[in-house]
Design a protein that fits this description.
With about 375 residues, the chain is α/β, with parallel strands linked by helices. It has 2 domains: about 1-15 and about 270-380, Beta Barrel (Lyase, Ornithine Decarboxylase, Chain A, domain 1), CATH 2.40.37; about 20-270, Alanine racemase (TIM Barrel, Alpha-Beta Barrel), CATH 3.20.20. It has helices spanning about 5-10, 20-35, 50-60, 70-80, 95-105, 115-125, 165-170, 195-215, 240-250, 265-270, 305, and strands spanning about 15-20, 40-45, 65, 85-90, 110, 130-140, 160, 180-185, 220, 260-265, 275-285, 290-295, 315, 320-330, 335-345, 350-355, 375-380. The strands form 2 sheets. Strands 1, 11, 12, 13, 14, 15, 16 and 17 form an 8-stranded mixed sheet that branches. The structure holds pyridoxal-5'-phosphate. Pyridoxal-5'-phosphate binds near residues 66 and 226. GO terms for molecular function: diaminopimelate decarboxylase activity; pyridoxal phosphate binding.
Length: about 375
Amino acid sequence: MLKEHLNTFSQHQTPFYAYDLRLLRQILDTAKAEAGKYGYHVHYALKANANAPILAEVLQRGFGADCVSGNEVKCALEAGFPAEQVVFAGVGKSDAEINFALDANIFCFNVESVQELEVIQELAAAKGKVAQVALRINPNVDAYTHKHITTGLEENKFGINTWELEGLVERFPSWPNLKLIGLHFHIGSQITDLRAFENLCLRVNEIQNWFEARGLVFPHLNVGGGLGVDYRSPDEKPVADFAAYFAIFDRLLEKRPAQVVHFELGRALVAPCGNLISKVLYLKHGQKTNFVILDAGMTELMRPALYQAYHHIENLTSTLPVKTYDVVGPICESTDCFSKDLELPETKRGDLVALRTAGAYGEVMASAYNLRDRVQAIYLF
Ligand SMILES: *Cc1c(COP(=O)(O)O)cnc(C)c1O
């Protein structure tokens, strides 16, 4: 399917990201329709991909923005997301970032520690403002995903632990510049075993009941993101099962009548539409291993080096019988390897290769290590 764009690809300097905006629209429309069935609010997690043409498509569908840095808040506002649809999470918000978000009147700070509450109180008081906050609670729920992208276990740095809540509830009256509007959860990423979300719902219910027993009912519940995509067969199911995902929350989450439920999706919305297109520089034949050396490396797509992530690799040029290769990048690191023992059609210098499903956490993580040029992007309409 990608092969139909071979002509376009051959006119650009490799490596580059190619984004299929048609597929992006199809995914966004599906997510919007499925969330709409239950009146759910979806915020797009900018950290997955913050390219302007992608943000424009997201914005057109009325999604909000989920940000994890001051610059992401700034980027979201500049892209046109209304401040009242911007949420701001992150364990280490600096004073400058908090002040910026206060000045912008964002919808909500998702607060990850007791000390952060104290700091936001102090900074908001200095401005004579009231900051809307939600408590990001660490629910100790396993996401059944790679340990490097699990965030909702006690051992992870994210969120406030439940045993801290008792003391926290007592202190809230002494923080007049904070308005506690909700609870927030985000247990991890690339979650494909949907039972993790069922477990999350049950934990959220327990925690919500705990607050209610203390006289606290919140207008907002934010259950985060994390829905996974199929990296193995990118052409078979490019659209994640949003219907099944949202239905779980409708079935299990004990939403109070006036409550608004929020989601923060990144990967499932943008991963499938992105491909890293690279050219084969060299073939190197060892005793045991044949290496394909690409002109793209971990500087363009860090996920395999960072957390052993799998990306489907396709030789767009060759139609020869398959051989077995290790596919590596040009960077001076042994972890700069995209795949080992991979079967590809016999590959030659100059062939174009696609690393699929790279639209999320790909280009945004690009680095200049080895003084590499910044990777470019093209858009397929
Ligand atoms: C990264 C992140 C998300 C999005 O996660 P995905 O796995 O891309 O859906 C949502 N919420 C928070 C707080 C995050 O840090």
